[in-house]
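Let's practice the habit of predicting before peeking. Look at the sequence and jot down your guess about where helices and strands might fall. Then scroll down.
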Amino acid sequence: MKKRWKFSIGFGACLLLAAGAYAGLDWADRAYSPPLENATVVSREVLDADGELLRAFATPQGRWRLKTAIEDVDPRFLAMLIGYEDRRFYEHGGVDPWAIGRAVFQLLTNGRIVSGASTLSMQVARLIEPRETRSFSAKLLQLARAIQLERRLDKKAVLELYLTHAPYGGNLEGVRAASLAWFGKEPKRLTVAEAGLLVALPQSPEMRRPDRHPQAAHAARERVLTRPAVTEVTGEGEAERASLDAVPRQRLQLPAYAAHLAEAAIRKQPKAEEYRTTLKRGIQKKLEEVAREASAKLAPKVSLAMVMADATTGEIVGEVGSADYFDAGRSGWIDMTRVLRSPGSTLKPFIYGLAFEQGLVSQETMIEDRPADFFGYRPKNFDMTYQGDVTVRQALQLSLNVPAVRLLDAVGPSRLMIRFRRADVHPILPPSEAPGLAIGLGGVGITLKDLVQSYAALANGGQPVRVGNGIDEQPAVLDSEMLLERQAIWNVTDILSDVLPPTGSRKLGIAYKTGTSYGYRDAWSVGYDGRYVLGVWVGRPDNGAVPGIAGYQTAAPILFEAFSRSGVPFTPHPAAPAGAVRLAQSDLPIAQRRFAVTASGLIRSSSRETAPQIVYPPEGAKVDLGASSGDISPLVLKLQGGRPPFRWLANGKPLADLSRRRTNEWQPEGAGFSTLTVIDSAGRAATVRVFVE
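Done guessing? Here is the structure:
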């Protein structure tokens, strides 16, 4: 009995002692927890729309430490790493007793350290809590920390900490930073030679740096690749083949694109670790290359900027804020895509669009390019010469100033500004000034981004879009009225797509317009195909004059080079919509053969024509409205002259209400001939017969 009693007491004491020890260890574990907060400091990353790295920022300690998930890394590299460093990684609890026993036995039998016993968990403990010396006490602490880490984290999290913090020479930490710096690519797909080097470097990162000690790096890689556990992963013969690959001799720069956008993202969200943008890295890279090459040909203080957007969504896919962010002479830190500047002649297409929409002109309508006085405002052409009588098509292609002002005077500057507001674009007028004729030649302030947003509506068939800021401002197709009717946009695009490319540039099929601001301060060029819009600005950030710059000679070559090299697939412009047609001058209605204005300001085609004239559709026209498919589109009706309000009749049947506008729509009931009549308030009438197909 006494023996059983003593055994029970002893056993109970052991249980109490074990429980006390466990409680003490648990208390110590909680009281002296591992400094996991050190592991949260990583480089901030700016990513493109597909998650590719655009730009990274070093940690406050100057380290390139890119957060790395297992999914970011080649699976074969992971298998090689575990096979070489810690074969029982998924079996032990932070410390591998077998590895410790082996290391101790080798030390006793050889009198020196033959192999270590550090697990990946122990290495992570050392990385997040570095020690000055390699003492026995430091090693014991490392053992304890490894066990603590495994109590708190699963194996995936421990491995990701290693992948993020492992040293790779200099200020490189983590496998992503190393792969980008040594191989110029993300570690998702690595060759056997590349993976072997990345396994070997963390053991002695400074002594094995391939740019400084290539022979040591090569030898270390060979030791990794010939390890049996690694050979099981790579396969027979791979080590021999990989040994033929040279180690990299130069450290590459990490991706550093979109400097201005990256800085803006950090200012908006200073505590975030990751910033997703709408940019496309491939496009961004090419635009920056073009900007760098073009700036080398510009004067020292002249900068440039570019914005490329998807007109169907409003997303900015490429943006260059300056010729060189670090060029102080060009004030490279200023993002010129967001600065108000005079747009020169780049707003003219919208003036012509309004004139087409209101039926004032057709492409072959004759218009005067001669000196004119608009109540004291006397516009002059850029080259100080005049062409005399030209067609509207020629006037826009040659960017003649007087014809543009004549049309703006007819459609009204206020109406033009209202149309810009439909596109959520707000050109800035001089203080206390109302919209005047000068806005047609650049007498407003507008940013490159807003100018691209205006042209995006042209590329999007007239539907306005909001171009985002690339970061947190959501792009969107605006739920607003059309900027211009589709027929008007087709006419503008048809004219601009036939403008000759600048000297030395090949024809791309894009529609484009150039502009030069007063005093040679800004050179512009904006072009678009059926989907993408690209705007280019060239000038001095301090608004100084740059003698000799011009939109066609300076900005347009950059536009064509950037559009060509951007890599975006060319999207054709939409086909002519129903009702849009380009007529020869001899086929135009008399009222549209020449644009002129009477002394009282009334638009006319000759001094005696005051009755209403139907300018579209013309007499006897055949109009394809899709009647054969059964889904007939409405027909746009346009008139000139007469006195509002107007009453329209189709085949003797009045349309809806009276209208004060000179445009209207009629929905045919079927195919065949129809008679259209308009009557003005003075009882004067005009009639045409058309054939609907």
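How did you do? The two ends are 116 Å apart (CA to CA).
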